[in-house]
Amino acid sequence: MGKTTKFFSTSELAKMYNLHPNTIRLYEHLGYISLAQRKDNNYRIFTELHVLQVKICRCIYGYPFFNKRIRDAGNKIMWASGKQQWDKGEYYTREYIELIKHEIKIANNTANILKVWAIKKCNNQNLLDGNFFSRRQIAAFFGVTVETIRNWERNYLIYSDNTGQFGEKLYSQSMFKRIQVIYMLRQAGYSIAAIHSSLLMLNTGNPEMIIIALNTPSIENDIISVGDRWIYELKKLYNAAQNIPILFEQVSILED
After folding, report:
1. Domain assignment of residue 165, given as a range
2. How far from chain centre, in Å, is Cα 36?
3. Cα–Cα distance, 71 to 168 (Å, whole number)
4. Which end of the chain is less congested by CB atoms within 10 angstroms, N or C?
5. Locate the HTH merR-type domain: which residues (predicted)?
6. How far is the C-alpha of 248 from the C-alpha of 173, rounded, in Å?
7. In 117-236, at which residue ranges do the beta strands (DSSP E only) sit?
8. Is-contact 168 135, C-beta < 8 A?
């Protein structure tokens, strides 16, 4: 006997993942899941294939995005899944996991820097090791645009320590660490104004005031917990991403 195909309505599929039915319709519209069959009354009919495709979406969309690279990589996985291009989906998933691992590395390094700052061991002197970075290098490392780096400079969050052979602005290793902190705080939801206030305390020799200066109504005023929360959320995203290859395997079994 052949396998019996199970069918689900839009509401039934949405309920499985505690979603609004319009979210399922949106996933279909965006190409994240395959087009549903239609009944005579034009109502959608979903199958177990769609159940797994939505589960892939929730492994990605069920968690916060930390930068454009991760968001774009997640979209590629869902589009490949929606087109039933399983090999491409698995390839994009490997890329996605590597990007998250890179972000976790940044988060751990930045959290360590934050803790040094918070216990007053930070100073504002450049490291004399001769290492300098261009805007483009910094933007590529953090997965932001060059314009973002320019914007931080225009808002006096960072400044150039040197110029290159062709007059391009360069940043020292100590400024690179400062940029790590700014990046982390932006990921955690702090405004440019709040970050500027905290760094002003640092620049004027009052590192103990950075926590107070960062105190905004929208999030906790503990700079250490910000770093820890960022790492915690990234690890949840990483663990969820580990399930995606398993889901692709389950899809292939469905098609056998």
Report:
1. 104-225
2. 30
3. 30
4. N
5. 7-48
6. 42
7. 132-134, 162-163, 169-172
8. yes
Answer yes or no: do 72 and 59 share one domain: yes
Evaluate the CA torsion angle 93, 99, 102, 107 in order and state its sign: negative
- Let me know if 88 is exposed, middle or buried by CB neighbors in 10 A (0-12, 13-18, 19+): middle
Burial class (CB in 10 A: 0-12, 13-18, 19+), 224: middle
The radius of gyration computed from the CA coordinates of the chain, to the nearest angstrom, equals 23
Parallel/antiparallel/unpaired status of strands 132-134 and 169-172: antiparallel
CA 55, CA 62: separation in Å to the nearest integer? Answer: 10
Residue range 60-93, pLDDT digits in tens: 998 776 678 889 999 999 999 999 999 999 999 9
Q: CATH number, domain at 182?
A: 1.10.1660.10
Backbone angles phi, psi at 214, to 5 degrees: -85, 0
Helix (H) or strand (E) holding 211: helix 210-213
Nearest to 100 by CA among 238, 240, 231, 243: 238
Spatial distance between the Cα atoms of 110 and 105, rounded to a whole number of angstroms: 9
Backbone angles phi, psi at 205, to 5 degrees: 80, 25
Helix (H) or strand (E) holding 38: strand 37-38
- What are the strands of the beta sheet with 162-163, ordered from one edge? 132-134, 169-172, 162-163
Q: Which two tokens stand for residue 195?
A: 């970050």
CA atoms within 13 A on the CB side of 27: 31
Residue 9 near residue 45, CB atoms below 8 Å: yes
Q: Are 113 and 180 in contact (CB under 8 A)?
A: yes
pLDDT tens per residue, range 188-240:
667 787 777 767 766 555 544 444 444 433 333 344 455 556 777 888 899 99
